[in-house]
């Protein structure tokens, strides 16, 4: 860590550090607070609050002198250390504070544009079925020591202090493995620095997040960091699909082994998942490994979920899990929250909540469901604010092509104007040839509209948020769950 010279003398006494955090709201007596320059909020603006709440030390960025210098002068007993990059410092400090917990776990990291969460759940289930105590950190939930809790951070991959504290809790609870969903933001912003996985999984790349990365090449470069960080001493393994155009690029990004998987008949792979039948609720599959093959039922619809299953099976195989445990994992599979999740509230039509939040993901979800719908396929969707603007175009296009009726609404508008976003999406929808649609900026109103339209044999797909627990607008974060709102709306409708 490169330290910049300070204009203040360090405190004369030793400093006690009780915890490490970049969230000023979590500061307590003897916390070490790391000020992160964010995209909308700068942690340096909360230095005075952190000091007043009892922080024993502040890690600040050297080029933010005008913000930390007055605080250092006002609190002479407070340790203030300036570094060149507080994001990079946070990862290393948090890892050291928690005694480098990743070194005591077999880490699996899953990255890619779509399918990350589902692949982490499937992998976690297979490791558990094989008798491994495994933790899980993804954009939906955490499991630590066998206990589940929601990911309340709002981030697919949380900040480094949250990750390191969670890994340390896994070690303390006796977990031996950990499966992590790793976003490109998490990789680019140093959140997983120092976590050298044993296995890295690539679910694929689509044009997304270009608002953040700028170009597809930089987006891919961020993803490749996970494979470049593979544990060299343990000869880390990359897992990639045989049919992926980036297969060779992924293999070349590390010095270990590559496990090739496929769910496509005719492809040669180390591990294959072959479907004998598909329906609206799942697939009958055969998992083929070098140790043999077994049949199983995947209780998740869609050919894309066959690909996610193949990646999970390849990951499990690379860690010594055989087909018997894979089969057992699917037999007892816990429903994946917000991933093609049916909502049952006594209604005479089908309602499904799915997390599809990109054009390709929404298209796949609609293509999966459409052949199984006797009536109309009614879609509720929005596009997250402050994300790649191409999402508005690609998601509107998927809706126009594949849904019979669309209710355009909002999905975490953040600082963007909700009404303007819906209007823009509607224009893209019309440009793609869409005809039957409503505009409902309020998401509850949109769900109510879709439920009111639905008749027996219809299917309502509520897409974009899945099991996310909040709605993010410009001035607040409020509790929200598409699944619970759908149940409330349906019950209210039925009662009338």
Description:
- This protein is of the alpha/beta class.
- The chain has 3 domains: 19-86, Udp-n-acetylmuramoylalanyl-d-glutamate--2,6- Diaminopimelate Ligase, Chain: A, domain 1, CATH 3.40.1390.10; 98-331, Mur-like, catalytic domain (UDP-N-acetylmuramoyl-L-alanine:D-glutamate ligase, 3-Layer(aba) Sandwich), CATH 3.40.1190.10; 341-495, Protein-Tyrosine Phosphatase, Chain A, CATH 3.90.190.
- The chain is built from 16 helices and 23 strands.
- The strands form 4 sheets. An 11-stranded mixed β-sheet has the order 8-7-6-9-5-10-11-12-13-14-15, with helices on both faces. The chain has a 6-stranded mixed β-sheet with strand order 16-17-21-18-19-20, with helices on both faces.
- A hairpin with a 2-residue loop joins strand 14 and strand 15 (292-298).
- The longest helix is centred in the middle third of the chain and has 16 residues, at 303-318.
- It starts with 18 loop residues before the first strand and ends with a helix.
